[in-house]
Every structure is written in C-alpha cells, then in structure tokens.
Amino acid sequence: MIRLTIHNLRLVSDGLILLDDIRLEAKPGTIHLIIGPTGSGKTLLGRTLAGFEPDSSGEIYLDGRDVIDIPSARRRIGWVAKSNSLWPALSVYSNVEFGLKSLKNSRQERKTRVSEALGWFGADSLKQQRADSLTKLESRRVELARALIVDPQIMIIDEPLNGLQPEESETLCENIARVQSDQRLTTLILTRDPQPWLPFTDRISLLDLGKILQTGPVAEVLQRPNSIRSAEFFGGCNILDGEIEAIGQAGEVLVRLALGQLVGRLSVSTSSPEIGSPVQVLIRPEAIALGMAPSGGGQSNRVPVRLENIAFNGPTRRIKMTAPGEQILESLATATVLGGLSTGSASTALIPADQVSVIAI
Questions:
Q1: b/e per residue, 87-99, with b = 16+ CB within 10 A?
Q2: What is the tens place of the pLDDT at every residue in 320-361?
Q3: Domain count, the chain
Q4: Does 134 lie in the same domain as 44?
Q5: Coil, helix or strand at residue 261
Q6: Distance CA 138, CA 123 (A)
Q7: 62 and 174 fall within a common domain
C-alpha cells in the first residue's frame, strides 16, 4: 500500500496559476475524494500527479520518494480519464493488453492477466469485442481494467460515473470500491458529485479555482466546514452572525447570536480569536433535530422554534423555522421524525455542539 503526500504543488501556464499550493495526503489503501465543480482544476490536478503536466513544481511523494521530476511512464500511477480513451478500432483484449507489452511478459502471462483484470470489473466476456461497440458503462469497466493491469502504485480516476444512468452509477461505484478494497490500492476519485462515494471514502478534499479549501475525514468536512464556500459544496447551510463570549481549552466556544447563546467548535481554519471577536456560525440543516435528542450523546444546544414552512425534499422534508430574535433556521427531517409537527407548531431545535462550526471573520 502506497501513501501519497503532496506539498506546495503548483501549475502555471502562460502566466496563469492553474493549481496553487496544493497540499494533501492520501492514506495507504484508501479512497480519497477530490471534490470540485467544473473548472475547479480536478482534471489538471490528476494529470499533474500522473506526470502529464511538465510545467508543475512542488513535491509529490509516493511512500517518501519525490516523483515530481520523474516521467509519467515511470511513476506507476494509473490514470483513467473522464472521456473514453480506448482505441476504438482495437478489441477490448488488445486495449487492455497494451500496457503489458512493454513489461515483456510472455503471451500466456498476458492472456491470463488480461482475463483477470477484466474479471475484476465483470467484463471478461467483452474481450473479443471492438472498443467502439461498447456502451458507456462497458467502456468505463475496460478503461479501469487497462489501468489496473500494469500494477500501479496508486490509481487516479477522473469522474468515473460521468454520463452513466443512476443504476449504472451505483453498480460501478460499488464495483470500484470492492476492487480497490480487495487490491488495497490507494485511489483518488475526482468528482463533482461526492454522494455515491461517501460510504466508501476515508478522506475528502474540496478543490475550487485550483486551490484546496479543506481536507479531512468525511464527517469533519461535512459537519464542520471551515468556510462558507466549503459548506456550499454539500448544499445549503445555516449561516448566522455573532460574536464570541467565552473560549474553552479544547476549541469549544460560547457564541452570542440573535437567537441567544450557542456552544460550538472553532473551525480548523480559525486560530486564536479573542472574546468579542465577530464570527460566523455554520450549521448544516441535517444537524438540527426537532424535539428529540440527536444520536451521539454529546452536548447539544436547545433553541425554541416555531415551524413556518414544511416542504417536500425527496425522502426528507425541508423545514423553515423561526428562532428567537426572528432568526431563520432550516432543517432536514424525515416524515417519521416530524411526527405530528406541522406548520405553526412550536418545538425545540436541538443542535449538537460539535456540529456548530465557528469561523472568525
């Protein structure tokens, strides 16, 4: 298993900074998500790590060895592009076998390894077909097999679910996660949509305009965004203005808001604020429970609220409520959790202190 560590990675082209001071670490044998909208630099980052962008600078360590000056062919980084990169006129077998020819394997060894690699993705039956006859899902399976067959140190997969139907996406996501786990292969997934990958992911990094905004364990980044922009990656967020009233020894703070006092945790991006400092408080809608203690048993804030609107939001309900000081909060809850509550009902919002992210302005 290989650890990937990146320090001060930059990519400049024609005077434009395309990647700026990229720092992250992917733990050995895990899936690490790089999340960002179109144009954020995900593909450029993947190509730079794979060695296809020679103008880059900085440090890229694979188990302690800096490969920034090593050509792409010698980095042993598997790269799967988001667009179909198979040779259309060749068979699936020839596409997958190609990478082995430079390794001087015997013909029988190549045949065995091609079948094995295609078998990892349930595509062995396709090996005699021409690549241009494949569906999008079949093409993606073959591309993954071709990248894995050369035994890369790490894998980088760019938008693997791009263009697939929902049921196809779910199947391929589970397939990739299973193979990654079986092979214990350090894997970077570059994606706009993190939701299908969250159950299989160890850590995530948020990339925007060529910069990493936040990196950390999934729960930390989801529940404690370090900026409004980071919070926006996962939908809407309650954003409240306040000021610090007290600071604890372990990063907990007491904040005064229009709705009263809340106990929260300082964001990892906020250092040494003072009492009286203005802050913004970020609370994800799904962190707010109504009339019942949230699971986990930690410290919770209790805020009296009045439900103003309940709207359908797929399997959940989006609830708009008014807290003291005419402060508006939004929450997400299932119909079961709502119980008999309806528009106009009074209730209590319970907000875990460890999911109240406090950011100094």
A1: eeeebbbbbbbbb
A2: 999 999 999 999 887 666 667 788 889 999 999 989 999 888
A3: 2
A4: yes
A5: strand
A6: 7
A7: yes
Q: Are residues 42 and 162 in the same domain?
A: yes
User: How many residues are present in the chain?
Assistant: 361
Say how many C-beta atoms besides its own lie within 10 A of residue 292's C-beta: 12
Whether 230 maps to a domain, the answer reads: no
For the stretch 28-78, pLDDT in tens is 999 999 999 999 999 999 999 999 998 899 999 999 899 999 999 888 899
- How confident is residue 304, by pLDDT bands cut at 50, 70 and 90? very high
Following DSSP, what letter does each residue of 53-65 receive, concatenated?
Answer: -TTEEEEEEETTE
- Cβ–Cβ under 8 Å, residues 191 and 34: yes
216 with 295, same domain?
Answer: no
pTM, to two decimals: 0.86
**Three-class SS state of 50:** helix
- What single letter denotes the amino acid at residue 135? T
DSSP per-residue codes, 171-217? HHHHHHHHHHHHHT-EEEEEES--GGGGGG-SEEEEEETTEEEEEEE
What range does the domain containing 297 cover? 235-360
